[in-house]
Amino acid sequence: MSYELIVGLETHVELSTKTKIFCSCPTSFGDSPNSNCCPVCLGFPGALPRLNRAVVEYAVKAGLATDCKIGRVSKMDRKNYVYPDLPKAYQISQFDRPLCYDGGMDLSSGNRIRINRIHIEEDAGKLIHTAQGVCIDYNRGGTPLIEIVTEPDFRSIEEVREYVENLRLIMRYLDVSDCKMQEGSMRCDVNISVRRKGETRFGTRTELKNMNSISFICKAIEVEYQRQIDEIEHGRPIVQETRRYVESGNYTESMRGKEDSQDYRYFREPDLPLVNVSDAEVEALAAALPELPRAKLNRYVDDFGINEKEARQIVRYPALAKYFEAMAEGVNPRQAANVMLTYVFRCFETDEQKEEGCVPVAAEELNRVLRYAAEGKLNQNALKKVVDTMLKEGKGFDAIFTLEQFQAPEIDLSALCKGIVSDNPKIVSSYLGGAEKAIGALIGQAMKATKGAVDPAAIRAAILAAIEEVRA
Ligand code: ADP
Ligand code: MG
Ligand code: ZN
């Protein structure tokens, strides 16, 4: 019997506003525990929240970039639950009138993933389990989040991977979040069900909460999919519940029964007014959106003539894409892409380093060198050597080289090559006898004599001309 996988995702993205969503405490990560708190974010009775307008702005940008409609009036609600990470015993979120709705993302499979909604809410504190007991750090409490909820439209693990990677990249290009999954600033709740092929109704789903690595999301879906099939094949019902993925053993286990929205007793947050967004605001934010990854990729391929695979590698890293564009300014973009991928990428060992994108030499410096090459002041060999040395030493051109040292010496290339040809009759005759590679030895001699300052193609042409003359 064959089964179909059904997945829906709820993705939390921590917004990188300077201050929290309902107070002016800083949102910085890694400070000493409970140092960035106040009566509002600690939930003291009587402390009143005030909505940080930057949060609305960031969330609208995220909505526009994912094809969402923007609600001109949305509403804040209380989601009630009792847990030590939430001192108020309710989270301020949005329930039935979210800020953004009806969006979507097209995937390369041709499938469109519908985005049901994006709402704004506050994050909870963080529990830290120690040998002495549980400690709570409320610094994260009140950090602004958006939650991006899809319909159950995913049909394969590959689609999930593409969506999460793409969503993460979009948020990073928008600069609304650093989306560091390992630090928890982007995390996914993964809802999974299976059904027999041909069945039109959905099966019962389970939910894997707070997944913060794309590769673990993919592994977890795979094992949960198999587990559910196994349950069904053994005639056992799937229980709607929250499960946890155990990385070390690559299996999922039950955490608790799934709560329904009625369990949260949602009601309108009485301490906050409705959230209004004007047409003018939406238009201004839409006009100021940066170029998004898909458009950038298309431009690199269509306008720059870079092949798609290479373009993708650059677009994956916003900081490096920015560097690349500065470096490619006014020169042949394919040559710039080549320098980028062969030499600049070599400066980094890990993906994180590429994401940071700190190149030891300014983009303007490499741009200058590429201009020299375009003007014929550096040949291809010299260009490679110069770029490589600059990046290795972390210095600009002038700190290491002068242009004079690459100027071709005044030589009569034709005379030089004639001399080499007449000095090496054996090589010439084996070349003429069909051993085409023999010519390499002659070119090599000429390169040596010109100290690599002359373009190898020109040398090759001169050697061939000299051979023609001998033969004639
Ligand atoms: P809740 O708010 O109670 O978690 P929702 O109906 O809002 O429930 O759905 C939450 C997520 O679960 C959504 O991303 C949705 O796409 C997904 N989902 C709903 N039903 C299924 C299903 N049968 N299989 C897989 N995912 C599902
Ligand atoms: Mg949920
Ligand atoms: Zn505060």
Automatic annotation (TrEMBL):
It catalyses: L-aspartyl-tRNA(Asn) + L-glutamine + ATP + H2O = L-asparaginyl-tRNA(Asn) + L-glutamate + ADP + phosphate + 2 H(+); L-glutamyl-tRNA(Gln) + L-glutamine + ATP + H2O = L-glutaminyl-tRNA(Gln) + L-glutamate + ADP + phosphate + H(+). It is an enzyme of class 6 (ligase). Residues 322-467 form the Asn/Gln amidotransferase domain. One of its GO terms (biological process) is translation. The keyword GTP-binding does not apply. The keyword Protein biosynthesis applies. SUPFAM superfamilies: GatB/YqeY motif, Glutamine synthetase/guanido kinase. Keywords: ATP-binding, Ligase, Nucleotide-binding, Protein biosynthesis. Heterotrimer of A, B and C subunits. This is Aspartyl/glutamyl-tRNA(Asn/Gln) amidotransferase subunit B. It comes from Candidatus Stercoripulliclostridium merdipullorum.
